[in-house]
Amino acid sequence: MTVRRDWLTALAFLAPALALLFTFTHYPAIQTLIDSFWSTPRGRRAAVFVGSDNYARLMQDPVFLRAMVNNAIYAAITIPASIILALVMALFVEGRIRGRALVRMSYFTPTMLPLIAVANIWLFFYLPGFGLFEQIRSAFGLSPRNWVGSPETALYGVSMVTVWSQAGFFMIFYLAALNTIPPSLREAAAIEGCRRWTFFRRVIWPLIMPTTLFVSVNATINAFRTVDHIFVMTQGGPNNASMLLLYYIYEQGFRFWDTAYAATLTVVMVAILSVVGIGQFFLLDRRVHYR
Amino acid sequence: MSSIVAPVRAFDPDRALIHLGAWTLAILWILPLAYAVWTAFHPSAYETRFDLFAPLTLENFIRAWNAAPFGRYYVNTILLVTMILAVQLVLCSLAAFAFARFEFPGRNLLFALVLVQLMVMPDILIVRNYATMARLGLLDSILAIGLPYFASGFAIFLLRQTFKTVPRELDEAARVEGCSWLGLLRRVYVPLARPTMLAFGLVSVSHHWNNFLWPLIVTSSVETRPLTVGLSIFATTDSGTEWSIINAATLITSGPLLIGFLIFQRQFVQSFMRAGIK
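The joint structure predicted for all components is written out below.
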């Protein structure tokens, strides 16, 4: 009997959180999947079952395909660039350098800004023939260029902003990991006359592998989730050059009010994130055994 | 690194290189922000002309502040982040306590369902959640901005980890004394989890202060809009606005968080570390 009463107590503790969690995470995820097989209700016309029509449209939609390619490029740039920069920053700051607090502050401060504010700052920074970036370029005799306004460079301009706003955040996790490396290892390496690079490659890098995994997963999620700056900088343009999946979901769902198609796009998004999640599960599992 | 190696401090080319690299990166990294700050504090004539002796002014801030209802946006944002954090701490402590201290059928399954939220977060389920808010009649309210984030999978996960480290002897002793489960949570577990809560609190506040997409969708009036949405409207609607004013507005929206960070730098950094290491 006491066991049963324990169950009820546990349920009472869990109920409020779980109810909200189901209402705003699990229910919408499932309902989105269902919606993707129906048409968008318009005015008096109710939604009708359309089978896989929305998915057929998806495969034919050049903007969707463009968004997928763009998002892949965006991920391929921002993930490795943020991780490498974060690690370099952490190694710089962890050593005994002069003005360490200042250096660390300048690496980390961009992280504290809203991405919307970051976008404004960079838009100004990029301003053709005007912003600081351009002034530096012109000092080297390069011609002015509209970085986020031209289709060839918009996606790269936007990626740079993402890297700037998140690298310092990931640095923190590397710093934490580097702090846990016992000093005795370093002393031993020093006695052996081990070179810095060898020490890094053979000792530090394997030891911080779990952190690298953790940071990679976060960077991957961010590559699909962070689109705030797109709103200010490019709005997906010019000519869809910087269109990303989540921004396209927003555009379909809240500009064209085509909710069924937006739901279909969301299913793709959830599928991508689930793959990342399952991948993480197996990788982290291995990490536990490794330890 | 070299302090252990070299008792005699000779010139070390490696160290010099590290210094050079660290400082170059630091200066490059802060440059965009420094540039924005510089223009915000100078008359617009100096927008693109760097002059060390240009006159300082607060004019841009005053004009930005008067050009849009930033005061109201501030109130909204502060209400929003306070509400979210308060509810998160209460609900998630309760749930985490159940996961950490009770045995019941389906516990692992339920916990797995909680962890799903770490991947499939409300940020991407915007279309359906908007429909839910419409049905609840909550559109364009501050409650609607916060509601999907109240039950945070991340908070439940973090607090459960912390609660599990509390020695069981403590709760047995308290139970023998006639303390209820709720009393036990409040008097024993919550005080012990204070560092975790502080860490999560800083992460939560900065996240929701900076959040943009969901508030943009669900709000449509000055009375509910948070700072980020207000800033985006201010910066895009009227393209004639001078950049020095937009930069001032940008700093207005991020100011408190930035100043808070500069003052409590160490706590911030440690909190983020704590929240990240599981």
